[in-house]
Write a structure and sequence with these properties.
Strands 1-2 form a two-stranded antiparallel ribbon. Helices cover about 75% and strands about 0% of the residues. The protein has about 250 residues and is an all-alpha fold. It has helices at about 1-10, 15-20, 30-55, 60-80, 85-100, 105-115, 120-145, 160-180, 185-205, 215-240, 245, and strands spanning about 155, 155-160. The N and C termini lie far apart (about 50 Å). β1 and β2 form a beta hairpin. The protein has one domain (about 1-235). α7 packs antiparallel against α8.
């Protein structure tokens, strides 16, 4: 119940996730920055709470994503010098602590019974993207510190700081999931969707604040789609064949 309410808080208010995503194709808004905030609030945070509401017995992937999101927001608040962002850090931290407390039994059981597994394909994909995403995060944090006039502000928070947090999440989450098989497909799918959509919006609005440029926009879309293909290929490969099919 609480996880569902927390999901709604990020989808609508005070997270503004769906609201921001709804204007990513509107010429009157800074489309890429709106997409970044919207993706962070919906795909990274809101989707995690929604999963916990629907599948509380499989809590580890969503909780891991929430912990990563909380940490990345906190880092962004400090490096971008965005004090007002600490409001979202505190909100997300409190909500995550509450659900972890309520689901501590399921988390303990999953942690004790998990099977360690490294995905070489995901590790390669995650590894090649770490530096570009970190470079983009640094650029967004620098823009935030410069207080650029081409940005946008929600709840007193400059979108450049959240854009940097999203980039940091996209650098870290796939890498973490590649090293822990129990985090995918959920964590990898969320990262792939976020990267692909952000790249698509940037490709459509190349002159928007926070845009990548054409080549990097295409690369972001391709990388996000590659994450989706890789994680589902891993799952298909992990499904044992029917004994009758093995004999064919």
């Amino acid at each position: 119940m609480l996880s569902g309410l927390f999901a709604v808080s990020w989808f609508v208010l005070p997270g503004f996730g769906v609201i921001d995503l709804s204007v990513t194709w509107n010429a009157d808004w800074p489309q890429v920055l709106e997409a970044g905030w919207g993706l962070f609030a919906t795909v990274i945070v809101g989707a995690s709470f929604a999963r916990l509401a629907v599948r509380p017995g499989e809590a580890v992937p969503a909780v891991a994503q929430l912990l990563a999101a909380s940490g990345c927001l906190a880092v962004s608040a400090v490096i971008a010098r965005e004090i007002d962002l600490l409001f979202l850090v505190a909100l997300l931290g409190l909500q995550t602590t509450i659900v972890c407390g309520l689901l501590r039994g399921a988390l303990r059981h999953e942690t004790e019974s998990r099977v360690a597994g490294v995905s070489p394909t995901l590790l390669l994909l995650a590894g090649v993207a770490v530096v570009p995403w970190l470079a983009y995060a640094l650029r967004m944090w620098s823009s935030n510190r410069d207080d650029r006039s081409d940005g946008d502000v929600t709840l007193g928070i400059d979108h450049y700081s959240v854009q940097g947090a999203l980039a940091l999440v996209l650098a870290l989450l796939p890498l973490w999931a590649a090293l822990r098989g129990d985090l995918h497909p959920f964590v990898v799918v969320c990262s792939g969707v976020a990267a692909s959509y952000l790249g698509l919006v940037s490709l459509a609005w190349p002159d928007a604040a926070g845009a990548f440029g054409q080549a990097w926009s295409i690369a972001a879309v391709a990388w996000g789609l590659a994450l989706l293909v890789a994680t589902f290929a891993d799952r298909i490969g992990a499904v044992p064949l029917d004994p009758d099919r093995r004999r064919l």
